Amino acid sequence: MDKRLAISTASIAVFIAAWEVAPRLGLVDPFFTSRPTQVIVAAADVVRSGTLLRDAAVSLSEFAIGFALAVAIGVPLGLLLGTFETLRLLLDPPIMAVYATPQLALLPIFVLWLGIGMSSKIAVVFLGASIPIIVNCMAGVRHVDRPLVVAARSFCATRLDVFARVILPASLPGVMIGIRLGLSRAVLGVVVAEMYVSQDGVGNQIMRLGSAFHVDRLLVYVLLVSTFGLAATSAVRRIEERIAR
Amino acid sequence: MRSARPLALGALSFAAILFAWEAGVRLGWLNPFFTSQPTAIARALLGGMQSGELGRAVRVSVEEFTAGFGAAIAVGLALGIAAGWFRPVEYALDPFIWFVYSAPLIAFYPLFVLWLGLGAHTVMAISFLLSVTPITVNTIAGMRSLDPLLLLAARSFGARAHDRLWKVALPASVPMIAAGLRLGVGRALTGVVIAELFVPSGGLGSSIAYNAGLLRTTDMLASLAVIVVIGVICTQALSALEAQFSSWRTGPGL
Prior knowledge:
Number of strands of chain B: 0
Radius of gyration of chain A: 22 Å
Structural class of chain B: mainly alpha
Structural class of chain A: mainly alpha
Oligomer: heterodimer
CATH superfamily of chain B: MetI-like
CATH topology of the largest domain in chain A: MetI-like fold
Radius of gyration of chain B: 23 Å
CATH architecture of chain B: Orthogonal Bundle
Mean pLDDT of chain A: 90
CATH architecture of the largest domain in chain A: Orthogonal Bundle
Number of helices of chain B: 12
Distance between the termini of chain B: 34 Å
Order of helices and strands of chain A: HHHHHHHHHHH
Helix content of chain A: over 70%
């Protein structure tokens, strides 16, 4: 484990050193790549400017509302579809069609329906996150060990008992995978939706900085988003591991 | 008869959705300005096919997808094999893989436009970057999950490192690699569509963005319908490929 940490750290250090030195030697144009020291200065600027908090608050609330709706609707719907076969056969094809399509393609239509404010972003986040949640909850229920269900039934458990005490706990790993996959789609969804059209938010800032080629500050925002995504995903992964144990 | 039931129910639900949509518009419950209607979309698709406009957009998008995903397969497999076989390579690559995986890469599109021009090359680059990570990660995972006994057995029968890699480790990781390709296909397609929303390349995503600007809901939904069809075809093809390769799996797990 120590060796792993050492090599990973060394590799990041080499990358950062090369990134700092190459523009100074004139090997690459710092206009495109910026430099680590510039990014650090820009990070201080961004934190001091105060717009970061406002933008982050907008993006985070879009993310939180859309994602919470996706969990609140996606998990029960997925569990229902996994349990009732006819319902699943009926709804599976449309869900699969949406699953196979990049849901962000619907962005312009959501903007037309809901306007350029927060609701179109919430809709994109909701759709992007709920599809993997539904699909994995469904798969989770279907992978429940059948003999367990049969055993519970033969010990006179009611259908509700079977669902609450056998199917639900056994499909939890699938539910968590769905939540983790949905999470990363939700993060991407917020940023892309705000970049497409918005008045504020992190994605709006990214769009402005990118179009103006402020690469240093752009990188600060991109690093913030990916750190958030990575932290949220690994938090869910940790819960998954605890459940698996 | 049992195998016909899913098909029948699936067709029924699509028919019901289309019927409700069309009826809703005709009865005045839905405003066609916002929702359009299936018959109008079908007419737009036919018109697009006849004028060749649709075919051109499909060709552009498919080319971008093929180039981006193809490059992702080549690079992802090469990186994955290197990192899967040599642990230090994996440790060195790991932080970068996770950054590329979790970063909203579309944020860099203005830079790509400067480097690669306002068009298909930028879209290809974004599609490549989005799809290369799942392929790399799954190739590494496939080679890591290899049963060490297999390698030991190969070694004790005198297989050289070269043979152990190409004849034992790689074939054994094919199911995981196939799963990575299936994940990658979705992300490659997402990359093409997102990039096209921002970068006018003449593809289907650009057509959606263009028609959205003109508030032409019908044309927008017609392009979207084509994207849905392409997405379903790609996903089905890769699932079939994956099923083919996982049928070799012997024993539980992996």
